Amino acid sequence: MQAELNSVSVFVLVAQEHSFRAAADRLGVTRSAVSQAIRKLEETVGVALIRRTTRSVSLTEEGERLYREVAPAVADITASLATIRDRPDQPSGQLRLAVSSIAEEFLSGRMLGAFSIAYPEIEIYINVTDEEFDIVAEGYDAGVRLGEVIAQDMIALPVSGQQRQVPVCSPAYLERMSRPFHPRDLADHRCVNWRPAPDVAPFRWEFAEDGREFVVTVGPGFTTNDMALMVKLARSGACIAFGMEESFRADIAAGRLVPLLEEFCPYFPGFYLYYPNRRNMAPKMRALLDFIKDFR
Questions:
Q1: Where in the chain is the domain with CATH 3.40.190.290?
Q2: This model's pTM is above 0.70
Q3: Does the pLDDT value for residue 220 go beyond 80?
Q4: b or e along 206-224 (b: 16 or more beta carbons within 10 Å of the residue's beta carbon)?
Q5: Given Cys at both, which of 147, 167, 268, 274 links 260, Cβ 3.0 to 4.6 Å?
């Protein structure tokens, strides 16, 4: 039984890393030891769990199902062991966070930098990503997203104030083009859309009027998955951009960008750090939660 549990832990790590070598490095063992553990597990369950080629590692259908079922349990066991191992007065270990690219305040570095100084034994790994996935199954301790897209079975802690989306452009753009006075006027303007991936729909331009929310479809002059490029294009005077007000705040304050249609841009709950409800929380995670509460 003990050998099977060890093999399951190795399997989960290989599935998360998509690599035998990376899993071996994290475990501090040889790649052949990892391969042997996977082979024994496959012999035990009687089916192939992992497809191996010279260039890639992927899960079979049975492997995907096993990973979904055992990954949360392995994460809980790891957290419980960390609780026993770590000293309450000096938490240590790696914190893995998946953070939305538009969580500007959280990614500003102020809070994370102060936390790192307060807890030098904690290593912080941050994956800036806009993909939606199960943070527990993927081995993350927590994530940061807008509150409206967080699963209801997660615990959420606010890490920003209220947010809103606004369209912006440069003063030079307004000199060349007429100012829009209603969101429907945007159809006559050149715009830049933000799209996180080719197979994902572009970010929606959402507004509200008299308490009624509505979406405006714009004809994009540009589409990109890079928020920084979107801001640069708006600064250049080429187009109107639409996104979180935080992303444009510095440029608006400096006069490089001008907010538009603000009366149609309502506020909504902002970003939250979310994490699973675990019976035994690792000291490193408890330290982060307590620090965020005090910092804000």
A1: 165-264
A2: no
A3: no
A4: bbeeeeeeeebebeeebeb
A5: 167
pLDDT value of position 1: 47
Lowest mean pLDDT among 179-193, 229-243, 278-292: 278-292
Q: What does 89-152 look like in DSSP terms, one character per residue? A: TB--EEEEEEE-TT-HHHHTSHHHHHHHHH-TTEEEEEEE------TTTTT-SEEEEEGGGS-T
Q: Are strands 220-224 and 154-158 parallel, antiparallel or unpaired?
A: unpaired
What is the spatial distance between Cα 38 and Cα 54, in angstroms, rounded to a whole number? 17
Question: Locate tokens 């966070």: which residue?
Answer: 97
DSSP 268: B
Return the CATH fold of 165-264: D-Maltodextrin-Binding Protein; domain 2 (3.40.190)
The tokens for 173 are 């753009």
- Contact by Cβ (8 Å): 160, 106: yes
SS3 state of residue 258:
strand
Q: Is the pLDDT of residue 278 over 80?
A: no
What is the dotted CATH code of the domain comprising 1-70?
A: 1.10.10.10
Q: Which superfamily does CATH assign the domain made up of 86-161+270-296 to? A: Periplasmic binding protein-like II (3.40.190.10)
In order of 195, 231, 247, 250, the CA distances from 243 in angstroms are 11, 9, 7, 14
Q: Judge contact between 164 and 267, C-beta under 8 A.
A: yes
Q: What pLDDT, on the 0 to 100 scale, is given for residue 86?
A: 54
Quick check: 3 pLDDT over 60?
Answer: no
At residue 219's C-alpha, the angle toward residues 218 and 222, to 5°, is: 110
Q: How many CA atoms lie within 13 Å of 130's alpha carbon, on the beta-carbon side? A: 16
CB contact set of 46 (below 8 Å; sequence gap of 6+)? none
Helix and strand counts by DSSP (H, E) for the chain: 10, 14
In eight-state DSSP terms, residue 282 is -
